[in-house]
Amino acid sequence: MNVLKDDFCTAAKKIAEQSVRIRRDLHKIPELAFQETMTAEYIASRLRKIGIPYQNGVAKTGIVGLIAGNPGKQTLLLRADMDALPIQEDKKRAGCSQHDGVMHACGHDGHVAVLLGVVELLWQYRQHLSCNIKLVFQPAEEDTGGAEPMIREGVLENPAVDAALSLHIMNDLEAGKIRVKRGAVMACPDEFDLKIIGKGGHGAYPHECVDPIAIAGQILCAFSALSARGTDPSTPCVISVCSICGGSFYNVIPDCVQMRGTVRLYDKALRKKLPLQLENIIKHYTSAYGANYEWDYRFMFPPLFNDAQLTEQFEKYTVDILGKENVTDEGKPSMAGDDFSYFADRVPSVYFNLGGANSAKGITMPLHSPDFDFDESCLMTGILAVGWFALHFGRED
After folding, report:
1. Mean pLDDT, the chain, as a whole number?
2. Of residues 81, 83, 373, 376, which has the active-site annotation?
3. Whether residue 142 lies in the annotated active site
């Protein structure tokens, strides 16, 4: 028997009211990567209340639940990240973080509230499901990433996952709307540390020194030139030096300078060769001036790509439940990163943006801002989009 959209929307509306309270509860108790113990227990208590079996302690603080369908059916993984950021929240607002220096400044409290709402909605309609629903509440997206450790601990098995879905609240999109794109969605967020080791001395006698600050300036310019002139302009590549530390006084040339930065791109072949290109630049300038260096390049999350076929299916059902005017594929791929890409590397996946802005109410601040907020009406939009798609996943049309 088919589920009527009107009935589904009515049920979602009641659940969304509860999801707002859940979001506000979670917003008060933000926790950093792999420290989400209070958050995890809150989630577990909700799953217990509904009656859904779950496993806790996955990748330290992660939780995996399952709404089981018939044996042999496909399995759809729904993921919500749950960690917060080391940011002090603007205390002028009610309901702020109760943990000094920690804040849900990236909307992960909303992500969890949406998924818990979807859980309750799908539990009501579990007899109509054509698939298993695996529920993944993931730690540490803002840090080293909890997705890969959860995969190592078997989250994609028992039952084996056939597809995955995740979302991110964004304030460049009005509440009530979603954005979903085929292909490239998020870049890799690779990191590097460089230490340039020179010879310090008096600022009045630079010829007696090996000035690491001057060398750092040359390397910084060369990195920028490599990004602008050494890569295909049709292939996005960002090389950003975000920290330079060295020296402490007006007339003292330091012994060393430390540089930190990030590389953001989509092209997997370029990603493999770029660290060597950067190191060749470093070698050139340090050897030319008689300095040494220490270089550490770290591959972080891979780029994130949406599966074309699954994205088409997702668009079909979200247009059906939200209306064509509220589903867009406009906008450019983001140069930010998300470790949901580890799931997308292994199974067909869709990662979409959930609009959280409300310009009329002044809710427009970007992610990672100390006064970030979102319009809580977007929670119902997320519940409807994810829930309606999950309800139809695995069906033969």
Report:
1. 96
2. 83
3. no
